[in-house]
């Protein structure tokens, strides 16, 4: 595997995804947690960082047992840190070196740059720059403004690049990373099929004849987890799918059908009324989240207790959650994780077969196992569901209005071929009534907001520039068909500073 030492950059995960896309397994670990005992490390990548190497609180680690032992590639801060700790100078750049640039000089004999030609576009994003390289560090690529855009350390398998090969705008970035993997002698045989084969074998070994329980949500992660576990242990897996009454229109029935089609052993629980009565009169978003989260656990427990001899709890945790929980800079803005633990007295152990996969890999694994495209390509949907898309308190009538409006929006989005181009979309029911006119009648009814964003990881998101004709059609249909709505607006805020959900 490749180890990516994380110095806190926003693009660290992207480095991981690029390496995986090249069919090489990698792990992202905090900058000071290098796995010295691992025997399968082929190479090391040092990430960027929000800090400057000379900041007093900059992340620093001893590389003496890494350099020379493995091939090393420093990216941005990683490159500056290597130079700085070997006696070079790093200073604040006069003008922040940010954005597109082109490599005006390339040493094409260097194996890191094989196949990359002069003029190649790269993406810079740093406030500092290397002003003097140590003697053994040789420049292998420059731009007009940055002499040491890339360097190689003489007599060592160590390289540094001050630009970001992992971002899309570095046109030959993937090629550069691939060259690095070749230098490391990587086999590049990490594929969805190989993952499934080895994971199913490991699960069989780990679980034996034990029984496993899993909460399904209709989402991609829990569904793929279920199919993978089902492949390994079959009927020893019991899935529970709770209808909290805040799902999309007909979602519960449709998804149940999909699950049964996949051969899963699923118990569907209709707990709508329980949730509606607990939520009555509650408007605060975090309070609603807590009630829904707790209600979910209660229903799940009640079902779990009816089953005999359960030893394991399956969960659809994926790699970004794992990285976030290890993160050195992470801050929690909203309390997202709803599926909390089961009571201690059940003594369940956790099994999380997707915990090392990125979202796109989860999808590829699902496809490879023959899951339906509409299950795999489904937009993310929050655990508390429509509960956080009804601003203010929740009533069954408001749920009905929102479900109807949302169904029109989503169906049209599919019909117009827009669904797969969007990261996530939905309708929000606002706590606002406004005046309208229908026929000769004055109306005083609800407003809904349409939301659609593009994103790669939900950390940042842009509002989607949907065609006006499409928006016109959606607005017309909603106002004409959904009783209780007389006004539709479109949300044109990006994240940050807005968030994807309104609550
Ligand atoms: P925000 O609104 O923070 O959302 O930009 C980022 C992503 O997280 C989802 N989200 C949630 N998911 N429980 C969840 O399981 C929650 O309470 C929750 N709140 C937001 C949101 O839909 C988006 O995909």
UniProtKB/TrEMBL annotation:
The active site is at 76 (nucleophile), 164, 166. ATP binds at residues 217-223. GO terms for cellular component: cytosol. The keyword tRNA processing does not apply. The keyword Hydrolase does not apply. Keywords: ATP-binding, Glutamine amidotransferase, GMP biosynthesis, Ligase, Nucleotide-binding, Purine biosynthesis. InterPro entries: Class_I_gatase-like (IPR029062), GATASE (IPR017926), GMP_synth_C (IPR001674), GMP_synth_GATase (IPR004739), GMP_synthase (IPR022955), GMPS_ATP_PPase_dom (IPR025777), NAD/GMP_synthase (IPR022310), Rossmann-like_a/b/a_fold (IPR014729). Pathway: Purine metabolism; GMP biosynthesis; GMP from XMP (L-Gln route): step 1/1. GO terms for molecular function: ATP binding; GMP synthase activity. It is an enzyme of class 6 (ligase). PROSITE patterns: GATASE_TYPE_1, GMPS_ATP_PPASE. It holds the Pfam family NAD_synthase. Residues 190-378 form the GMPS ATP-PPase domain. It catalyses: XMP + L-glutamine + ATP + H2O = GMP + L-glutamate + AMP + diphosphate + 2 H(+). Its EC number is 6.3.5.2. Homodimer. Catalyzes the synthesis of GMP from XMP. This is GMP synthase [glutamine-hydrolyzing]. It comes from Parabacteroides chinchillae.
């Amino acid at each position: 595997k490749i180890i990516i030492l994380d110095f806190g950059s926003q693009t660290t995960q992207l480095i991981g995804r690029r390496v995986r896309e090249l069919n090489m397994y990698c792990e992202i670990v905090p900058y000071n947690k290098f796995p010295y005992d691992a025997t399968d490390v082929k190479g090391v990548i040092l990430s960027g960082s929000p800090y400057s190497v000379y900041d007093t609180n900059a992340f620093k680690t001893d590389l003496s047992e890494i350099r020379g032992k493995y091939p090393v590639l420093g990216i941005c801060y990683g490159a500056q840190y290597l130079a700085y700790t070997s006696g070079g100078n790093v200073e604040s750049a006069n003008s922040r070196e940010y954005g597109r640039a082109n490599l005006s000089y390339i040493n094409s004999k260097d194996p890191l740059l094989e196949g990359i030609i002069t003029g190649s576009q790269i993406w810079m994003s740093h406030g500092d720059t290397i002003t003097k390289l140590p003697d053994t560090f040789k420049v292998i690529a420059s731009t007009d403004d940055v002499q040491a855009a890339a360097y190689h350390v003489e007599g060592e398998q160590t390289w540094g690049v001050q630009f970001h090969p992992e971002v899309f705008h570095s046109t030959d970035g993937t090629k550069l990373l691939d060259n690095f993997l070749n230098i490391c002698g990587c086999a590049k045989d990490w594929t969805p099929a190989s993952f499934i084969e080895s994971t199913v074998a490991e699960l069989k070994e780990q679980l034996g004849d034990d029984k496993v329980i899993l909460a399904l949500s209709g989402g991609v992660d829990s569904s793929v987890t279920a199919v993978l576990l089902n492949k390994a242990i079959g009927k020893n897996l019991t899935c529970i799918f709770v209808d909290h009454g805040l799902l999309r229109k007909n979602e519960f029935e449709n998804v149940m059908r999909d699950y049964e089609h996949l051969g899963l052993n699923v118990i569907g629980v209709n707990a709508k009324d329980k949730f509606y009565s607990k939520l009555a009169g509650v408007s605060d978003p975090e309070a609603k989240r807590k009630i829904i989260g707790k209600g979910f656990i209660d229903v799940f427990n009640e079902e779990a207790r009816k089953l005999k001899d359960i030893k394991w709890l399956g969960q659809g945790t994926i790699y970004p959650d794992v990285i976030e929980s290890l993160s050195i800079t992470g801050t929690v803005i909203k309390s997202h994780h709803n599926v909390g633990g089961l009571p201690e007295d059940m003594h369940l152990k956790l099994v999380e077969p997707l915990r090392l996969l990125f979202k796109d890999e989860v999808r590829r694994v699902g496809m490879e196992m023959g899951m339906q495209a509409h299950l795999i390509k489904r937009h993310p949907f929050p655990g508390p569901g429509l509960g956080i898309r009804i601003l203010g308190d929740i009533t069954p009538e408001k749920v009905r209005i929102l479900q109807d409006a949302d169904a029109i929006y989503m169906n049209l989005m599919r019909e117009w071929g827009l669904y797969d181009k969007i990261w996530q979309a939905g309708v929000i029911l606002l706590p606002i009534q406004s005046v309208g006119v229908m026929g000769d009648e004055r109306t005083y009814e609800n407003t809904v907001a349409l939301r659609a964003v593009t994103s790669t990881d939900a950390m940042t998101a842009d509002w989607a520039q949907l065609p006006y004709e499409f928006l016109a059609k959606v607005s017309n249909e909603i106002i004409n068909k959904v009783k209780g709505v007389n006004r539709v607006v479109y949300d044109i805020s990006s994240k940050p500073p807005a968030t994807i959900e309104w609550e």
